[in-house]
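User: I'm putting together a teaching handout on how multi-component assemblies are represented. Below are the sequence lines for each component of a complex, exactly as they appear in our records. Could you produce the 3D structure of the whole assembly as structure tokens, so the students can see both representations side by side? Please keep the chain order the same as the input.
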Amino acid sequence: MNIIVCIKQVIDPEAPPASFKIDTASNSVVPPPGMPPVISPFDENAVEAALRIKDAQGGKITAISLGINLQRDVVKKPLSMGADELILLEDEAFVGGDSWSTAYALAMAIKKIGDYDLILCGRQAADWDAGQVGSGIAEILGLPSVTLAKKIDSANGKARVERVTDDGYEVIDVSLPALITVSNEIGQPRYPTIKGIMAAKSKQPIIWKPTDIGVDPSQVGAAGRRTEMLKLFQPVREGKCEIVEGESPEEAAVNLALKLREAKIL
Amino acid sequence: MAEYKGVMVYGEVSETKLAGITTELLGCGRKLADDLGQELYAVLVGSDISSLAQEAITFGADKVCVIDDPLLKDYQTDSYVSVIEKVVKQVMPQILLLGQTSIGRDLAPRLAFRLETAASMGCVMLDIDPKSKLLLQTKPVYGGNAQATFVSKSCPQIATVRAKAMSPLEPDASRQGEIVTIKAELEPSAIRTKVLEKVPEEVVGIKLEDAEVVVAGGRGIGSAEGFQQLEELAKMLKGAVGASRPPCDNGWVPDSLQVGLTGKIVTPDLYIAVALSGSSQHMSGCSGSKNIIAINKDPEANIFKEARFGIVGDWKKTLPAFAEKVKELLAG
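Assistant: Of course. Below is the structure of the complete assembly, with chains in the same order as your input.
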């Protein structure tokens, strides 16, 4: 079973909201100082899903990422978790893309890899929260897709997927090769082992430029966008919290209940 | 671009009526269509759904395209993308709206790539730019820490809309509209997935999305047992229990209780957030609540920026006393 997992390096979404800053001049987010980037959490769930399949039936996992200034200790995390290979589409030309141009570049890279049974992506990235790249790759490559997986099993050229729906889940069979996007319900990603970290250290990622995957720089990154971002802003919060106090925590709690009654909320 | 005209809403069906999100989309679509001076189309896809076309008209549609076929009984990516692609190519709408639901999240991107256009996912605001007449698509990004406004010049301009972000129109039974039936003409072999089973979540008591009171817990609750206390308070207030992501990921509560960007969206009168920091991604599921009350031991927690009232203190000490007093007040 050959599995490809797409991963994205993002600003740590666990950074405290107070540290979130926008540079209005460039319409971009200022990385919080002292917080290194991370793999987008749903992508780590996708890596975990791939590893579980590999644990059960063996196979090879190739992680692939796209961007510029990809920090090696960040993007190598799938390797330290147990993936076999890392490919980086790392070039100035890949920067500033939208779902369209990113999916296109990844699809072309996957085409070049060629030998795969399953492509996994996180359900959406923690920065733009779009959740389009997975379906986009599937469409470009002409593959069936199932999104929002919480469980994936595979046997006999098929995958059986439990897909999260608004009111529960559904069980879907899909023929392979296929693309599946993974949701956090799949379970916590494993921690890298010391052995894994050591192995990852000695592995060098394969770097591909636009010409390596046969694309023109004008089709990828910012040049290949189909959408334009007009504005990036932080919505104003007018909220002002009244802290209810008391001699003891218990008294504060009683006062809160009284306050809610007074404000006719209760 | 000139040849693309009109606003189209893909209308999800729930059991035997239009889904709530569909009426919200029709309300929003009606306004956009009026701003453009164009018609509003609804597309209904499924099996045995033709009778709902009239309902779409009462909620604002001028024309309803119905694709009714036994092969469309379950939502499946291949079949639904294919029939909606067909309708779009026939009608050529300038704008296509879908719900940010488990269907819309799957359908919209794949359809956008098929039609070689672009989509914005999870919009909370949609407007027509008075000058360019393009659709301004505003959506939360960075887990709700920020919002961004996008435009796309390729047609149809596709956007999915979050639940409860738009208001439906009052249904008007006297509204007139046209119903068009379109044949699915699906090739069964082109559907590469098979839905084996649908497993509905177990709802005990009131459904989270419909509850007027939500008692939500975060990482600080620490265990499944802790959530039982929240449940008791919720029961007393005739409400439902919700959670941020960590309690779900830790298995203290079912995943279906997750409120947030990737979970449920709730807009109750009262949202009691207990031991919950109030991350942006959680707040984007509950910030529409009328009153948010925070109980947290960390005075710096983000939740206090969102709450109307709060107490700083350990929930283990404060919640029982709060619940006791609430019980007394409700009884008296």
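A couple of points students might notice: Chain B touches chain A through 87 residues (CB under 8 Å). Residues 208-331 of chain B form a domain with the Rossmann fold fold (CATH 3.40.50.1220).
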